[in-house]
Structures
1.
Amino acid sequence: MVSAVGAKLQVGDGDFLVASLIERCPKSMMSRELVKNALEAASRARGERLVEISAIDIDGVPKLCIWNTGEGLSATDLFKMCDIASSIGKEKGLQHNFGMGAKVASLPSNQLGMRYRSCRRGKVHEVVIGKRDGVYGRLAAAKPGSGIFAVVSDVTLAASQERRLSQDWTEVVLLGNSPEQDTVADPYGADPEVEADWLAAELYARFFRLRGDVELRILNGGPKRGALQRFATLEERGPRDFAGYECVTDPDGFRIHYLYDVVSSTNAWVNESGYGAMQEAKSMAGLVYDDEIYALAYSWDWTRQAPDFGIPFGARQISVFVELPGDYPLIIDGYRQFLRHRHGAQEQVGLREFIDRVRDHRPQWLIDLMREMAPDSNISADVRQELQKALRSLGVRRPGLDPEAPPPPPAPAPAATPPQHAEAEPETAVQQEAPPAAEPPAQPEAAPRKELADDEVMLAPDIFFLRDDTEVGERNFVGRAARYYEETNALYINLTYPVAREIHAALTAALDHPTSPETRDVIRIHVQRVLALRVGMVVVYALSKRSEPHAWPDWAVTGAITPEALTIAADDFHRLIPAMAEAVRKELTGEA
């Protein structure tokens, strides 16, 4: 039995391994890696703790520069620092800031070079790493007037013309992939292209908070380019710049951050917190671990998911972050792009895993705000009453209630409600190989269905109407009449769907006085009501099938309440027009 390692594993092709690690790294991690390194170094400084991201000219071309205070590197340390998986002053470990690193993340977009300079006790040394002839490494430079080439150079004299040498510092300059590349405005060589505020946007979406009393100043990407502005994180800006902010800690140690941003009074597409900020103010949601943001859902990606998290309205102004406890069982992948579960198949830790926590801990002020944003509460309440009657008559049990007890069999539907499918009983009989009968067996009178108590009956869905094309697009409703979110029991009706206009036109044509404002208003209400009731009943009957798991497994029930299924149900409205027109006439004339 082997009890010890007899020979360590070696790397057979070092150049290929290095190139593979570098060129597989996501380019988007470059700013995170460079800034994180600078922040950590500055946090250990004895005096001023400062990180500055600015632009310097190299042969007349702007290049991005990251500079920080903190203990400088000697020539020997600067040389070692350039190796892959080598860092100075860092604790190695999966849970620490030790991954593939800034070099790996930055070199794909800076093959011409990354220039490192470090001042230690008044002396400055420089090393440049880049790619030449297909190989990544330290670039040799000739010492002025000597003809001798070296990979680490003493540049104290040149550096003294640009910076003070009275304190230790380190800087890295991104040279890009070509001499003419402006790495301030175009950090990735147009692959991908970026907006003017790319740096602030990337840092804002990554660093939830800064520790160690470090001040971060970054280049303003707007009209005042060249000016440095103090960078503020979401945690700092939440209580200060947002209209509403609260952090709730649950019993398991999760901290859920809720932020509400007011829409600008002059521009409906802009949130107030964006004024004076270096990045756009759009809503988002994500996970926070060790002060950094992961699994980010941004703008439309977030607003499409928000109803599942208990944010039915206002998702364009509401942001949510779930901060994981420090002892949460996870590992961070090598490029620090994802969080992964420590055990099992080590899948990525996703935002949607925490839907219940976000929904269950929403502050009351936020719930009240969302209620104010929900229009047509009277119509919704009316339809919900009808759906609640149907849920009770069908014996639909509230989800999660007494899971050990089998759901009760559905009761015979009353005359006013559409009858249930009669095929379920014969199908059960066939599965049990019962002898054929001339008539379906009657329900045994000895075992009547037990009436559910009020707190056992499933609640009717909350109903919301969408009229705005932007909201429809954000929720991916285009071409769909409705969507049901089972996690939050919410039903959204798309009033921009063509069927709504078609029903309105058909009712108008069927009435004697279609042009009066009163008639148009009554028609509008009936259109909303019939659409909500029609798709709502489909949801109710689909959910009732959960009491027949042998015939209706979960995937079948889910298929019956997809947006596509609800849309097709809404499309079948023509036979309802005569009854709807009569109802409108009676309402207009005051008939009983």
2.
Amino acid sequence: MKTPRVITISFLFVLLILSGSCKNRAPVSTSLPRSTPEAEGVASAELITFLDSVAAGRHEFHSIMIIRHGKVVAEGWWAPYSRELRHTMYSTSKSFTSTAVGFAVTEKLLSVDDTVISFFPDQLPDTVSPFLAMMTVKDLLTMSAGQVPDPTGRISTSSGDWVKEFLATPVLKEPGTEFLYNSMATFMLSAIVQKVTGEKIADYLRPRLFEPLGIEGYDWEESPGGITSGGWGLRVKTEDMAKFGLLYLQKGMWNGKQIIPAAWIEEATTFKIDQAPGELPEEKAMSDWKQGYCYQFWRCRNNAYRADGAFGQYIIVMPEKDAVVAITCESPDLQDEINLVWDHILPAMKEGPLQEDKETLTVLKERFANLALPVPVEKPDSPLASAISGKSFKIISDHGSQGYFNFRFSGDTCHLSLEMNGEEASIAFGRGRWIESETGFPGPSLLSRPLGFTSHRIAAAYEWKDDSTLVLTARYIESPHSIMFNFTFEADTLIMNMRLSPPPGLDTPQVKAVMEE
């Protein structure tokens, strides 16, 4: 199983996330048809059991949409997440990049057997090794480029030419022979498509994929050189994820038109390489990461396949059940998250229509309509609130940075403002309720410097843990991430601790500030 890298984020970088004002959200795209679970052979009672398991578990679900026989039978968003919001896909983006390759192959602009170096004659290293010369588009698609170790962390944080840096990375294994997860290989697929089409893949896919499926309001990160990142960085809505999965389930057919050849769908989603060739069969049987890798899709148990992103962003396609499950989540255990699908949603799908069960269906609809993540507890403000309201706290730093925290309490709202090295930022936190706003500063990410996004939506709330401890929570509601600020006040001194999620419980160094007269 691929292991997410630790989030890195500087103190100044995190402090500068606090800014902005509300803006209009992206429009909701054309909807899929809806039906009831029983009409499509899905037992509402078993979906309620699924929701019970989610509520009792350790996974923070943000949304789910279940499609059966081409119709949405269940859907829900855990507030403050909502249907009109996009969500960071992380590596689920890879399956969209694979689709762009499929369109380019269909249009005879490239072949999966083309060598990678043939596309970039001006960006090659001085010496092209035999293994680099052998590397093909198919090797990139199947995560078998032969580079060891995976160069993604090094290259993705560079401000240089990512293509050139990838090609300069030693290829130590014969391409096509060994699986090693490599997000920069997917970036290279994006670069190749851009090379042969003259368009970024986000633009190339617009008339071929996004417009036919009614996918609107998406965006996608880019490299410093202006190439779509490919292996990560796409943001779409939950229903867009479901549409993409349904297109694949329907073998490329959409509204009576063959959008992409069925032969490519078959090629892209069937076993290509074994991720763990030496693993015992009984151990493989328990893992959805050891069923084989395709063209930027993962094979699953139960003869399914999926697009898969960090922290549990899934588009699971189940051909034998004629079903798709789309999930956005912040999960500490990706296998356990998928197990919830196999344990509850899969067995809920029966062979034919079920008898109508109005009472259970009413309960199910109410449960989905009222999904919500815990909000910081609404407690009366500490007596300290009035004492610090309007006061500035000067940050004490060993690194030469200068700045101030300022708190202002008004009714049930805490306004936190920051001035740091000439930059100013502020955000409003609701007492026991979420206040949504928008910031131009990025929050935590698997990659240390996400590129290409200019705005990020936040839902923010606060509570007083005790009379001297103020906790502020900011959720980045178009991503899996959140930040919790813990301010402890002692006389005229403030101590700030910050926790990033995910990964759960990643604490940053303490920051100290002193109240100014």
3.
Amino acid sequence: MAEKKKATTKKSESKKVAPVKQEVKKQAAAPAAAVGQTTKQDARIGVFICHCGTNIAGSMDIPAVQEYAKTVPNVAFVDNYKYMCSMPGQAVISKAIKDNKLTGVVVAACSPRLHEPTFRTATKEAGLNPFRFEMANIREQNSWVHMHDWEGSTDKAKDAIRIAVAKAALLQDLFPKSVPVEKAAMVVGAGVAGMQAALDLDAAGIKTYLVESTPSIGGRMSQLDKTFPTLDCSQCILTPKMVDVGRAKNIELMTYSEVDAVEGYIGNFDVTVRKKARGVLTPAEAEARGIVGGGCNGCGDCEAVCPVVKPNDFEVGMKPRKAIYINHPQVVPLIYTIDFNSCIKCGLCVTACGPEKKAIDLESKDEFVKVKVGTAILATGFDIFPVEKKEEWGYKRYENVITSLEFERLICASGPTGGHLVRPSDGETPKRVAFVLCAGSRDNTGVGKPYCSRFCCMYSLKHAHQIIEKIPGCTPYIFYMDIRSFGKMYEEFYYRIQDEGAKFIRGRVANILEDPKTKNLHVHADDTLLDRPVDMDVDLVVLAAAVQPMADTNRTRKLFGVSCSMDGWLLEAHPKLNPCGTTTAGVFLAGVCQGPKDIPDTVASAEGAASAASIPIHKGEVELEPYFATCIEEKCAGCGMCVNLCPYSALSLVEKEGRQVMQVTEAKCKGCGTCGGFCPGGAIWMNHFATPQIVAQIDAFLLGGEQ
């Protein structure tokens, strides 16, 4: 079958491919600086086939693949082993390199993302340059998808090995480069994740810039009343952390600020931070202006005289605030902020502040500050899905339909009602409250979010407990699809709420209608356990709205060169092996910006990110893989078209010997190949993915090795 396929392919494609191959090779010879180049005639490649237990061996004929590999041009040695990544397996590779004087190694096994570093190390320890190694993925791309096609899987493995050998025969020695690392870090976002990461970096003795877009730190957690399953007061456990951040000697707090621009690479990021005009001076700023003992002390005299009243975003619009304000009494830093979009500049606050403090500056402007950091952590948090898009539930049409975040503020002692849960329509205490779970989550209609928001079930159980505790005789009705109580002591908390008297109805709510006279709500659903429709009359409905990425997440990720998932969450380098890292070296993720997490998982991820971000800083330098572009200057026309194409801003035009040529900032280059694939003159050589190597792989596949 394989021979038939090769013959057919050769007949139909050889006339097309061969001329292209010759032309490309003619244009893209290796740059003069390349060292350790092996010609195809000198190549001696070792092929090592892994069984991966039965992951691979259970779906293909390993002996047949091994025998075929012996016939591939330039192959000098072939072996197989049950677990090639094990120490004995690596010993097989090392011994073969020494005994057979191999110039290159091909391991046919799993994904390079898992074990390429393992096999590179084995190659290096045997005395061979580690970049003379190539991997053929015959597990994820073969056996796992062809487990019921023995013959097809075997043939595909042969093709994969032949293609890998063709490239390995042309690989050259490459040498990693090291760059120094600035002994400072930046954390973007000062919710519980950002604060924890900053505190850990501070404890490690690292200068840390903590950038927060709002006037104070604390994030979403500062809006909560209690936390599940322990029912600790949120502010009681959060405020000490906020105070620690404010006092930490290594943390420079940059509130009411945002990242405006990012340049550089791991170890040497140049970040421009825009400090928004606050209109109020801190004591340090006042002292810098020569005002001894001046600056804001949080007394609130200015707020008392301000005539402008606006909805309070911190209270989800359920309470007013002034044009000069603080979110709550425990804010850090305890400095007032002027909302210049609302301020009428009447000057009453200036008069109230007094001539001693002189803390008010109505003419203040945005400032731009440049800082240099070695690593950065993104902890930008989450936003609430606009659940009014699900029109069937009546949010923003019916006053007594609220979100869980609004419930948190109503039930909180520091909230707009002093902790008394009331109906927004008439201020009455509700006696029957319906909780609608998965409000916008696990929704494949195209309006909501397809993913689970993960912590909604648990905070709805907490809310049910709170109304049972605070309102005698009040009954919570929880409409759910599945209760996902996944964490430590969470399942026990679920049973506790059942025992306390909460009523559970399994079924998605179809729609909610209002009685115009009483303002009561009719919740229509299907009880899937009793197999009957439900029409329940309740006083108040609480929607457990889905969470989604912050509105400016896409802007932030572009600034730092980070990828995102289809749902818009920031994407980690590897979901299991590198959950805190990103595809941009030196940039790490913490908290809910990469997907829904509860508070313990958020704090744990922040500690992991802080640990990962501190490693390059403590080492003092970082080693970069040599997968970067190189300019063959004699072929470069200086057109500059590649400069604008580079997604990492790694290319620039420089003057050399009276003409312009392209220059690569190697530390920025990620080896994506965009410039090399576009260059009309073939002037760009991609290390480890050079044009002759890629063409050799294409030829090996299309011509079946008969080149």
4.
Amino acid sequence: MDPKRLRNGFIYLLAGVALLAVFYTLFLPAQPGRDVDVTEMLAKARNNEVQRIEVQGDTLTVHLNSGDKVRTRKETGANVLDVLRLGGVDLSKTNIQVVVKEPNQFGVVLSLFANIFPVILIAGLLLFMMRQTQGTNNQALSFGKSRARMFSGNRPTVTFSDVAGVDEAKQELQEVVEFLKYPEKFSALGARIPRGVLLVGPPGTGKTLLSRAVAGEAGVPFFSISGSEFVEMFVGVGASRVRDLFEQAKKNSPCIVFVDEIDAVGRQRGSGLGGSHDEREQTLNQILVEMDGFDTNTNVIVIAATNRPDVLDPALLRPGRFDRQVVLDRPDIVGRTNILQVHTKGKPLDADIELGVLAKQTPGFTGADLANMVNEAAILAARRNKTAIGSSELEEAVDRVVAGPERKSRIISPWEKELTAYHEGGHALVGRMLPHADPVHKISIVARGMMGGYTRFLPEEDRYTWTKTQFRDQLATLMGGLVAEKLVFGESTTGPGNDIERATNIARTMVTRYGMSEKLGPRTFGRKEELVFLGREISEQRNYSEKIAEDIDTEVQDFLADAYQRAEEILTIHRGKLDRLAERLIAQETLEGQELEQIFRDLPAVGKPRVPQLGAAAAAAATATAEQPVAG
């Protein structure tokens, strides 16, 4: 029985007893007179003070000659006449009348209930306390039960058609679907499907969605649980939950078990502060044991997701456990177009919207970013009382995702507005004049998020490899805001702080990681060690001398000085264009598209050469930095 229902029933019982007591007190006729003992009653009878005696059960009501009434009680079962005779009262010599009445059944029941009720009340309280204690014990014991949520495979809500931009990953997981549907096809050839599939990728790339699509395509039950749900404050709870999860999975075989953020329990053992007795390590050990204990005919496939594969325990990744890794990277332009088609399905769009053009404007966006962008555009259209989503809403949604919502209510002085206009104009003009910089897409001096203004550059194609020339042009573009402030106002402000920080990081990365320094040559400097139990903390160990450290600082300074000089030359030559660009920004606050090109129309044509893809290593960190808008 539900403890809550039991508690309510007990309260109702007490209320009923209280009502009975009130009824007994108010409506039951009260017995008249006062109470006396038998000795006093017999004495009054011998003195001829008694007129009549009424007998009802074991209660005697004595009516006195004076009109008063007294009550007394006799032993149960004793005859009243024997009582009087033994007390020396001769009825034949007195006028005492003895009247015998039937016992009051209602009074007997109430009297019996009054005697038994305390026992019932105590027994009820004990029962209630025992049930409550039992419920607490059940909750304590339920700590070891799995918290996985089970989704039935009869009505799939997500299929591969709902997932876009990860064609290679879907192809890899198609084998899992076929194994769950037609296991005899693989067993006939002696093939063994991987027992564990690890989905690796940045946040928002669709790892959870893809795993649900696998279950939807296969039409099998789907158990979903997060890695953090295994571990509790009690020792052994995580291991118990792992055992219970796999027991449920085997009972519902064939099925899929999905563990999201498995790095919460799958980190390398021995790296924490708790040693081998750490609760997390016990949970990991139980996962390893359970994945090894699958029978050959048990069609249970474990799919896990993480964005930190570097911290996982090697025993978890060996063949026989998670022996297949599927990488989900940020989608390219084709993938973004397909993702936009999925998320705009069923939404009214203006006829002039081209999803391919929109995909070019969103480099570096994940599937979650694109879904959020489309949703923001729909909200903006509804806010503006439109019946369809237009290009202006989509453009605004892109800016909201990249830089945050507009802060038009922020009041700034005319001088600060002019300063921001020249700062952003310096970024845009330098980027426009450098052949290896990305094209300028939009300039705005409207504050967004923590930015006072921003200039957004869009690459003409997805870039996976960077060259030294591209890095140098990007450094000069970042220095454009600082140079413009000094050129126009004669001093710098705090505005270029983020630009200088990003430029310094890029220059140091060029020297220490990519070997782009002519003086130091092709060599990496410093060894990075990730402290697993501290999350993303990185400890960099120096493997070079103090003299090399000075040379690194000198090379970084040379790259930054070169970028500053190039930006200064461009803005000095085209100072008139910078002034006109700032004036238009002050008047309109935002420039993009044809309006921006009209300002640049009399500048020398700058061909954006296609830089050959040199080298095999992709500058992932630099790519992520370059895709950010240049903040003012």
